[in-house]
Amino acid sequence: MDIEIILEPDLHPNQVAELAVAAEKYGVRALWSSNYYQQWDAFLSLIPAAQQTSKILLGPLAVSPFEMHPLKMANALLTLNELSDGRAIIAVGAGGGTLGAMKFACEQDSCSGLKPFRIIRAIREAVEILLSASEKKFNLKYEGEIFNITRPYMQGFTWAKSARPKIYTCSTEPQMLRLGGQFADGLQMSDVAVPMLDGAMTNIQIGLEKRETPAEDFRISNFWAWHIKEDKEESFQEARRELVFRGSLLPPFSLHHFLTEDEAQIVIDNFNAGANNEFVKAYISRSGVIENVPESLVSKLVTDLSSAGDLSDIDRELDRFKQFKKRGMTDLSIRLFDEPMKGLKMIGEKILPALR
What kind of architecture, by CATH, is found in domain 2-242+306-355? Predict the structure, then answer.
């Protein structure tokens, strides 16, 4: 199982390049720049890294077809691919907070003039457009249910000379897992813990079996939050702060894997409390203090849904990662937070050698 790194979106592109150089030396397979609408551009942030590295794959994660038209997405991706000599990757996803900020969503029977929100179909069409452009299928138009390229590509992307970039979907729930398996080069799950993995792999296999031609080197990866530090309390403070973003809580699809019914209800009540969402407050205040949820329950969520603790906990995390590998994951995308170079050093020296 290979290791990939996902970076915070607030890093200066020069910092991204510095981390990419170090990651390449450790043998990290890929480096992802997080795509947040209020931070550095995820494509442009990777240009210095492309210029200063030669092996590591580079790409933005996740890009929504509702924030960036797939044709312009292809243009940006192929530009990055040329500047990196064929090392570009991309993960196409729903859009999350970006779509909320753009008010690009609608409730059933109340769309206020917007098209119905059909994210699964939109991602499928985005992947098809990206593949068509990347495979130099020039002078083709695209007629989809959501996206249309009514004029042919004309001269196409004739300047694109490198091997085509790899295109992933951001897939965690069943329909998206099947979609990624059927159409993409690979997929990125989010916060899928060991008890959830067998079900996820089943849905991926359903998608793979629907492909017109067998996939070559299909990659199955998983976003995983890394908070291990020398100071355990500092680690748990960071992990508690970031719990609001753990995929198994947004919305709480998978709590039954970890919590009793009563424990899950406490989490759900505090998550669905609107302006009183205690998980959001812990993030915004940067305190990591989650009121109204017992500390023992918060610690259980942190331990089950992320890697947290001090250096003595690394063996436990290695056991977890080996379970990921055993169940069919080809890659693990480790998300770094505060002091990313320290986190990368720990992963490069403690995790990568043990997983080879």
Answer: Alpha-Beta Barrel (3.20)
Residue 187: its H or E element: strand 186-190
State how beta strands 30-34 and 2-7 pair.
parallel
Over the stretch 35-70, which tens digit does the pLDDT of each residue have? 998 899 999 999 999 999 999 999 999 999 999 999
Q: Name the residue type at position 345.
A: K
Q: Residue 224: which of 136, 317, 287, 151 has the closest Cα?
A: 317
For 190-213, what is each residue's pLDDT tens digit? 999 999 999 999 999 999 999 999
Q: Are 210 and 180 in contact (CB under 8 A)?
A: no
- State pTM to two decimals: 0.93
Rg (CA), the chain: 20
C-alpha dist (Å) from residue 343 to 43, 82, 100, 201, 308? 23, 30, 31, 29, 12
CA distance 135 to 58: 19
